[in-house]
Amino acid sequence: MSAPEHGRTDAQRGLTRKVAQRLRLARPGLWEVLLGAPLWGVMMAVSALAALYLRNGVETSQLSSILVLFFSGGLVSWPFALLLGRFGAIGRGRETRFAAFFLCLTLCTITTTAILFAIDYRIFYARWHAPFGTGTWVYQFTFTSASAIYQFIVMGIRLYLPLGFAALALTSLWLSCRMPKQQR
Fold this sequence. Notes:
Elements: H1 3-26, H2 30-56, H3 63-89, H4 94-125, H5 135-156, H6 163-178
Helix pairs in contact: 1-3, 2-3, 3-4, 4-5, 4-6
């Protein structure tokens, strides 16, 4: 093995060690997840409820399904958003920590809720799809899921406004100020 190849391997090992160390430091505690996840889920469900109330007086036959979807999206996304936000915030200034949490909470919550919506959408349309594992099934699964995610992005994201945005900003601020001193 030549010297440049050996150096590259050491650099890769060093980077892997740094990432592993940051992940250990970023790992949220059990209580942060057990208390934060349901709270974040409730905030997202309340956001959807408020948006539906402001737009049409909550006149929808699917209210409970929508609230369960937004609650579940918040609940499932919280641990990932917290881990990724803390990973990006370690050793950074307050503004950067705020931005890391804001970005991770936004992306994880929207992505998780869109995926849950796509799963529900897929379950509904599965009765008309080809048998599992066939080429037609793969095509139908791919485009049904992509359509559901697109539909959520177009119609579902607005249910995060106005309360979801406020909750996002306040939660990001709270998390950025709350990081342990050794991680700042």
